Amino acid sequence: MPIISRSAELSLDFLVVGGGIGGLSVAYMLQKAGHRVRVVEKQGLHAPSAGLRIPPNLSKILWQWVDREELDKVTTRCVGTPMHSLHTGKNVGYLPWKPAVMAEIGGEFLLMHRQDLIRLLFNLATEVGVIVDLDTTVTSVRPGTAHDPRPTVTLDNGGVLAADIVIGSDGCNSIIRPVVVGEEQHASASSLTVYTGTVNAHNIVQDAELAPLIAHSCEDWPIWMGDRHSFSVAYQRSSQELYIGLYVWHRPDEPSSTGEESWDHSVATEVIATAGYPPIVQRLIKMAPHFIRTEFTPRNSGQCDWVDTTGQIVLLGDAAHPSIPGGQNIASMAIEDAVVFGSLFSHLRTMEQVPSFLGAYQELRQPRCEKVGRSDIKGAELMALPPGPAADARDENIRQQLQEWDEGMLKESFEEIAEIFGYDAGDAAEEWWINWGRFHETAGEQPGVVVSIRRD
Ligand SMILES: Cc1cc2nc3c(=O)[nH]c(=O)nc-3n(C[C@H](O)[C@H](O)[C@H](O)COP(=O)(O)OP(=O)(O)OC[C@H]3O[C@@H](n4cnc5c(N)ncnc54)[C@H](O)[C@@H]3O)c2cc1C
């Protein structure tokens, strides 16, 4: 369960670097569990952003954290996805989210503005007593030493803050990650550029050809599939905005992209080459005042530790598992990390438990994040297949989805998605506690109980 009702017997000081989605969530969970938490965030509450996808495994958590009515005001429910060709503009088919499948999973597919989620999480965290320093940048982190055993972070204003544990949740361009995992080999060039932007719905209503898009996309999120390019839109009724996303995959032989893996870069709409897209897509892109441009560069580092060698600095969210920008599960993976982390530390009674809790956090979260991350990449690649047999087979499959699913198809499809969307992060943490964690204090007497942080 993502709600914590117990207070840890031993209370620690946590310093969270980065008050984004994962940072604010873990701060909320830990403070609720009786710890003292401070968050340092380099931006304010209104950093430019666009739409975030909230898959069922995350909507289930948010429904328990936030009043349902309040959440309904800032989210749009998705019931299905019309699929179009990015070459011809023609419809290929429709992928419905079957109500029977959603009911079984216990969540829904939602969309919300990142700023709205940040605001909700900020309120949750500060209401339970988390201290959040906004507009403050962490410039470096230092592990504890024999002389000064607590880890510290240095701020851009010259301040130095110490804590028992530092959580690096500073996103895809993390400065904490290299301190934990060392220097990493990146693939030589970015494999993907993602542009995200918003269009004011009032402008769309004025355009007779585009207006139906808003009416239809209230509960549908259309996707256009092209050769190494894909384009998607989703309408947010509460803010009267259309979120748009353009994915451009690079060929291995293409020159390196000049962009950066970061959400800080706004680019003019004119930099996007729209030639060859259907007129409706071109017009939509031109209506966005500007775009955030980010890149995705896969690492070659394989599995790495999320906890530093001192056991005092730990990674969470994109800093731990950098994932495809704008992916279906990026927010859900960061918040699931927070739920598992907070649930484990709600059982803290002695300092000796800390290494086993950190080890359990990584062991529970790393395989899941890798699996879900691969699925997100596969899904995005599928939308941008070059012409050929694979793209034809995909289109044929989409066409078949229009027919009513029989029981066999429903079962097959359900099994595929239940693993990702049916997951309950709080239950996973509690299961570990019941099976392993509670024996920690007598671990010496419990054969087979591993209490150290894993070091591969
Ligand atoms: C400004 C911004 C806009 C975004 N817009 C979108 C979007 O439109 N669509 C989408 O799908 N995803 C967006 N994302 C990414 C998305 O929020 C994450 O990929 C995902 O939710 C995982 O959350 P996270 O907490 O790991 O990372 P993030 O949500 O990226 O949070 C990381 C936080 O760390 C802060 N930070 C980084 N370095 C430091 C430092 N040195 N000191 C202090 N703070 C630091 C950042 O400002 C950020 O708030 C955006 C991220 C940011 C930062």
UniProtKB/TrEMBL annotation:
Keywords: FAD, Flavoprotein, Monooxygenase, Oxidoreductase. Residues 13-45 form the FAD dependent oxidoreductase domain. GO terms for molecular function: FAD binding; monooxygenase activity. InterPro entries: FAD-bd, FAD-dep_Monooxygenase_BioMet, FAD-dep_OxRdtase, FAD/NAD-bd_sf, Intein_C. It comes from the Eukaryota. Gene3D superfamilies: FAD/NAD(P)-binding domain (3.50.50.60). Belongs to the paxM FAD-dependent monooxygenase family. PANTHER family: HYDROXYLASE, PUTATIVE-RELATED (PTHR13789:SF306), MONOOXYGENASE (PTHR13789). This is FAD/NAD(P)-binding domain-containing protein.
